[in-house]
Amino acid sequence: MIILKSRREIDRMKAACSIVAEVLEGLRSLVCPGVTTFDLERFASAEAFKHKATCAFRGYHKYPSSLCCSPNDQVVHGLPNKKPLKSGDILSLDFCVVYDDLYGDAAITIPVGDVSDAAKNLISATEESLYAAIKMAVPGNRLGDVSSAVQTLVESKGYSVVRDFVGHGIGRSLHEDPQIPNYGLAGKGVKLKPGMVLAIEPMINEKSHEVAVLDDNWTVVTCDGGLSAHFEHTVAITENGPEILTRIF
């Protein structure tokens, strides 16, 4: 069941979403060669505490951390550790908080030091696909229009769309209906209505779309060792079009 949000609820969600955006912006400034993802985890947790927000990932299905840190061939759900980042890495960071009983969720992929043109192009295409999808998140369109926008853009550039993990509705729960694949047919699926709030999150691989979960039961990696990038915004569908609630960065 898709839960529509009132204008007041959407405005309240902005508080959680702005905390997420602010934390991710702070993390972006910290990412450099020599920093560890454990350092980034501590920063994110401390910032959420300052804002009196709860880190939504910690404890969710027993996930052990507040922040998902996924470098290079890791797609999503990477666990923070004490291994220093090095120049040439790319790092996807996914963060979510609960504030005033409502959720905000967003993700970014950041180059570490000097990265290859191939890495830069993958990051750029993934972020571009997010905004292409958001542009389609208007009343009267179908969910397939959002999904197709991602797939069409990234496949035109030679990349592949992860199929095992998808975006989702969000509000009083982290994961609500509908699921939002990053592939599909335009004109198909649920009709979009004002009051829907969606976490749209392209996960794009440099090579094959195939992924696997490591023995830690969390970290998702590309099967062929190719790079992966991830961007996400929490987006409200309104009568006036899409409203990006997590926009700062």
Can you describe this structure in just a few lines?
The protein is of the alpha+beta class and 249 residues long.
CATH topology: Creatine Amidinohydrolase
Distance between the termini: 31 Å
Low-confidence stretches: none
What best-fitting shape do the alpha-carbon axes yield?
globular
Provide the fold topology.
Blueprint: H1 7-30, H2 37-50, E1 54-55, E2 67-71, E3 74-76, E4 90-99, E5 102-111, H3 117-135, H4 143-156, E6 160-161, E7 167-169, E8 176-180, E9 197-200, E10 203-205, E11 211-213, E12 220-222, E13 228-230, E14 233-238, E15 241-244
Antiparallel strand pairs: 1-4, 2-4, 3-12, 4-5, 6-10, 7-8, 7-9, 9-14, 10-13, 11-12, 14-15
Helix pairs in contact: 1-2, 3-4
Task: Characterise the protein shown here.
The protein is α+β, with helices and mostly antiparallel strands. It has one domain: Creatinase/methionine aminopeptidase superfamily (Creatine Amidinohydrolase, Alpha-Beta Complex), CATH 3.90.230.10. Helix content is 29%, strand content 27%. The protein has four helices and 15 strands. The strands form four sheets. Strands 8-7-9-14-15 form a five-stranded antiparallel sheet. Strand 7 and strand 8 form a beta hairpin. Helix 1 packs antiparallel against helix 2 and helix 3 packs antiparallel against helix 4. The longest helix has 24 residues. The two termini are 31 Å apart.
